[in-house]
Structures are given as C-alpha cells and as structure tokens.
C-alpha cells in the first residue's frame, strides 16, 4: 500500500514520521500486522519510508487491513496530520481482484497495478525492455532537441550535453543497467544535437563519438561514455554490499541469496535480473574482472586478509609473484594472522613449508620475506577494504569510470594540453580543436607571422604548428596569450569560410587579419 500524507504542516512531518514507524513496529511485535518475509533468514519487510512517502507491505487478510486502517487513523489523531487517502493506492500481488476491491473500499483508497512509480523509479518493471527506458529517452529528446541547438556554439552544446546527461538519466542509471539499444538511442540523441545545427536531416558526424569521449589530453572533448558510466555508477552497489555498511536492503540480499558479508560469488540459481546484471558487469575485462582489480585491502591485524591472495605488491598478489613457494606452502588459504604471531609489540612471520627448499627456492623465500617485512601489521585495527590505487575508504565513481575508459597504448599529444590552457574564448578553442585532426592552409599564417613581427619554419602537422607559437624569452602566461591568438586566427578562418559558402564572399587572406 502506498500512502501519501498531505502537505499541511510540513515543518513537523519529519518528526512524526518516526512515530508512524514506531506504531508499525509495535503492531508487528504484537502479531497484529505481519510484513513479507524474504529468503532463508526470513528477513521481514513491513514498510519503507522516505520523507512523506510510505510503502506498507502486509499479508492478505481482512484483519490486517483493519489494523492498518487503525494505525493510520491513530497517527492522524496523535499527530494532527492528515492521510490523503484519495492519493493513497493499494496494489496486490497474487491477490484476487474481488478481494483487492474490498480492501481498497475498506481503506477508502484507489487501486493500482504493477509496475508503479515510487520516488521517480518504476517498481516491478523490466529494465531489459526498451519501453522501461522510454521516459528517460523522451526527456533527453526534449532537452536535446535539434532546434534548441540552432543558436548555440559548439562549446555551448558541449556544456548542455554534459549538464543534461548528468541530470536526467543519472537516477535510473544508478539503479538499473540499460540495454545496448538504450545506449545507442541516447548516443544518437547526443550526436544529433551536437552536429545537427538546427537541421532535421541526419547530420554528418565529423568526429566519431568514441573519439569525443576521449580525455581532452588525448584529443577528445571529455564527454562521458554512457555505457561505461552506467557500469561505474552501478558497481557502487557491489561495493556497498562488500563494505561494512548495514541496512535492510543488505539484509534482504544476504537472506535471499544465502551470501554472508564476505561472500563475493553468488549462486546463479534464483538470482534476480538486477543482481545478475551487477555481477556480470563487474566481471567484465577478463580475469577476476575490472571491479576486483580496483578492490584492495588495507592491512590491520590480519583477521580478514588472505596471505597469499590478498596481500599485494603493486598490482600483483603474493600467489602470482611467488607461485612456486605458494605450491610448497602449508597455509595456502590462511589469513595473515595465522602465518605469524605477536612477540610483545613486534610481529614475527612464521611461514611453514611441506618440505625443505632447494637452494634456488631459498633465494625466493628470502625475497618473499623482504617483501612482507614491509607490511605494517597493526593489532589495534581490523582489516578494511579500500578502493583504487589511492586506497580510498569510499567508492569513487570517477576512479571506476577512468579505469573502464583507459585505453592501453593511448597517446597523449602535448599540443592538446596547450590548446585547452590557451587564453581564448571557448568557441575559439572548439573551432581550433577541429582542424587538429586535419591540415590547414599556410598563406594566412605567413601574413599573420609577418603581422606579429617574427618568422619561423611552419609545420605541416596542425598540432606541431600550434605548439610552435612559442617564444622562449616570454613567460608562460604570455605564451598562452600567443596561443590564444592562434585560436582566434583559426576562428577567423572558419568565419571567412562560412562567408564564402553562405554569403558569396571572396577568398581574401588579408581580410582575415
């Protein structure tokens, strides 16, 4: 049952919300009301509450309905607030329609079916269907319609794309994994808005979307790849499940899947599609998956960290670095606290082997001891999981996205770094960025250099040509201004080109200056 309280006296609504929750808990304790029980541990869920929206869950029974009616009426009398029964709705799962009708009349509220909206999300829908994402796609189409970009520069369009992308689909993407068709639809809307220039026909994309999503230092514009961003923000649920955080949602997952807090591999049987998507998504990238590569341990007393598999040197575990010694070890699955002991305030390692080592194996053992002596075992704190090379105690979506977006062997041309630091207007920088992928005429530049009062050999490559606008005796700020002049000239070349094409202008290099 979905109950919505009226907006009167909102200043006290949060104070009395806990009172309503207390009434429900007392009713459950007295067996007057029973919620739904989930999983082998029979975790009971009787209500969910957020601000002035409350969801109640209870078994089908006329007595339970009467108890619910009494709770709501008692809450009204005690708090002075009013329950808006006309906006409240009742839904049944595996409940006969005539019984549901009687319950709704008894509560004086309307009926609703599944799926339904709660806090802006569709509850009970199938996120694998394209129709599930239609509200998000339609909003993007409205905000990024082609005609709205008619009077915006390219720099302005990039800002709009980033702001709209961050605002509209973020809530859905943080809970559900979108399908490939949804990814393509959203990219198509963004691409059409960027290159459309107010035309309804399919525009020409002068730069591929993959290159646009590259970092600015690699020649892109720093746009988000929606698929990788969806993976990065959705993986936060996996991190929260692995962390020490407690909550009803976590109790439900552990009860349903039979997974303890430390469990990382869930049984496939009876998994929901939501959890299957999260597990499958985190396993992409080969090996244990990209997610597991970023999860690390911060060593404390060694009560959770496995010695051979979790203790890392750089990006590699002791098991992979010293595989020969691992095969000889007696304590292959033991934790750090089991392979050593405290002697006062000093920690001493006790490694046990199945047989005596050969001479060349003894050298490996000495190297291993040199590595593990650097580990700081602290008996006063417990082992905790950390995220990324920075060893953050909280999950970082940016670090996860950068890990997914990194390209092996990607080249960083220093010309792009200078370009975005140049002292010039954004539309000039955007205009200068496009020719970096092609050639430019040199007659205009000869006149420009003559006007500036210095000459040098001009490069054919546009990026080297941009970097060559540099005076060794000048300060860094003066050189950035000089590169801004370069950007302004490129913008003037572009304006002259448009004048020739659309206003029957005449080709004149001096006119640009």
Quick structural summary:
This protein has about 525 residues and is mainly alpha-helical. The chain is built from 24 helices and 15 strands.
Provide the gyration radius in Å: 32 Å
Q: Tell me the distance between the termini.
A: 72 Å
Specify the number of helices.
24
How much of the polypeptide forms β-strand, as a percent range? 5-15%
Mean pLDDT level: 79
Outline the biggest β-sheet.
3 strands, antiparallel
Widest sheet, order of strands: 1-5-4
Helix content: 40-55%
Care to count the β-strands? 15
Query: How many separate domains make up the residues?
Result: 5
Low-confidence stretches: 5-13, 261-265
The geometry reads as flat
Global structural class: mainly alpha
Describe it for me?
The chain has 24 helices and 15 strands. It has a 3-stranded antiparallel beta sheet with strand order 1-5-4, with helices on one face. 46% of the residues lie in helices and 9% in strands. It has 5 domains: 2-122; 130-233, no CATH class; 235-297 and 385-403, no CATH class; 300-382, no CATH class; 414-512. Helix 1 runs antiparallel to helix 2 (62-79). The protein has helices at 13-29, 62-79, 97-107, 134-143, 154-167, 170-173, 180-196, 209-212, 226-234, 236-242, 248-257, 273-282, 290-294, 307-310, 318-321, 323-328, 359-372, 397-405, 414-421, 426-433, 443-452, 462-467, 476-502, 509-512; strands at 2-4, 36-38, 43-45, 47-50, 53-56, 89-90, 110-111, 116-118, 121-123, 295-298, 312-313, 316-317, 340-343, 346-349, 384-387. The radius of gyration is 32 Å and the shape is flat. By secondary structure, the chain is mostly helical. The model is unreliable at 5-13 and 261-265 (pLDDT under 50).
């Amino acid at each position: 049952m979905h109950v919505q309280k009226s907006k009167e006296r909102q200043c006290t609504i949060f104070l009395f919300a806990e009172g309503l929750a207390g009434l429900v808990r007392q009713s459950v304790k007295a067996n007057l009301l029973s919620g739904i029980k989930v999983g082998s541990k029979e975790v009971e869920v009787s209500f969910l509450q957020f601000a002035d929206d409350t969801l109640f869950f209870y078994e089908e029974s006329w007595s339970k309905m009467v108890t619910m009616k009494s709770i709501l009426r008692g809450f009204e009398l005690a708090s002075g607030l009013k329950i808006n029964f006309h906006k409240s709705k009742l839904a049944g799962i595996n409940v006969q329609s005539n019984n549901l009708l009687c319950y709704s009349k008894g509560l004086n509220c309307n009926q609703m079916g599944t799926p339904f909206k709660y806090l802006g999300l569709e509850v009970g829908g199938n996120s694998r269907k394209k129709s599930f994402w239609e509200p998000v796609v339609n909003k993007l189409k409205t905000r990024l319609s082609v005609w709205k970009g008619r009077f915006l520069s390219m720099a302005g369009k990039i800002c709009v794309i980033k702001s709209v992308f961050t605002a509209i689909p973020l809530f859905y993407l943080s809970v559900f994994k979108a399908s490939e068709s949804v990814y393509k639809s959203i990219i198509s809307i963004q691409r059409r808005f960027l290159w459309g220039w107010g035309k309804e026909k399919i525009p020409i994309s002068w730069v591929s979307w993959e290159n646009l999503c590259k970092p600015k230092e690699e020649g892109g514009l720093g746009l988000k790849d929606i698929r990788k961003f969806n993976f990065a923000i959705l993986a936060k649920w996996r991190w929260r499940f692995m962390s020490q955080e407690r909550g009803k949602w976590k109790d439900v997952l552990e009860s349903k899947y039979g997974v303890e807090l430390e469990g990382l591999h869930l049984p496939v049987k009876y998994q929901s599609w939501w959890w299957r998507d999260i597990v499958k998504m985190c396993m992409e990238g080969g090996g244990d998956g990209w997610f597991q590569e970023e999860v690390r341990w911060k060593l404390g007393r060694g009560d959770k960290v496995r010695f051979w598999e979790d203790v890392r040197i750089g990006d590699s575990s002791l098991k992979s670095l010293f595989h020969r010694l691992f095969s000889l070890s007696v304590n292959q699955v033991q934790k750090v606290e089991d392979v050593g002991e405290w002697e006062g305030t000093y920690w001493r390692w006790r490694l046990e082997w199945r047989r005596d080592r050969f001479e060349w194996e003894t050298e490996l053992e000495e190297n291993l001891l040199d590595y593990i002596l650097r580990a700081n075992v602290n008996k006063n704190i417990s082992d905790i999981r950390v995220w990324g090379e920075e060893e953050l105690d909280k999950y970082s979506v940016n670090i996860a996205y950068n890990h997914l977006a990194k390209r092996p062997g990607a080249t960083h041309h220093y010309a792009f770094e200078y370009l975005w630091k140049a002292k010039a207007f954004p539309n000039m920088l955007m205009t200068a960025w496009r020719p970096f992928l092609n050639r430019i005429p040199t007659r205009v530049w000869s006149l420009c250099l003559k006007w500036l009062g210095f000459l040098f050999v001009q490069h054919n490559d546009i990026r080297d040509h941009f970097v060559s606008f540099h005076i060794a005796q000048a300060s860094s700020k003066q050189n950035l201004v000089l590169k801004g002049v370069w950007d302004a000239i490129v913008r003037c070349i572009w304006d002259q080109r448009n004048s020739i094409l659309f206003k029957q202008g005449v080709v004149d290099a001096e006119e640009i200056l």
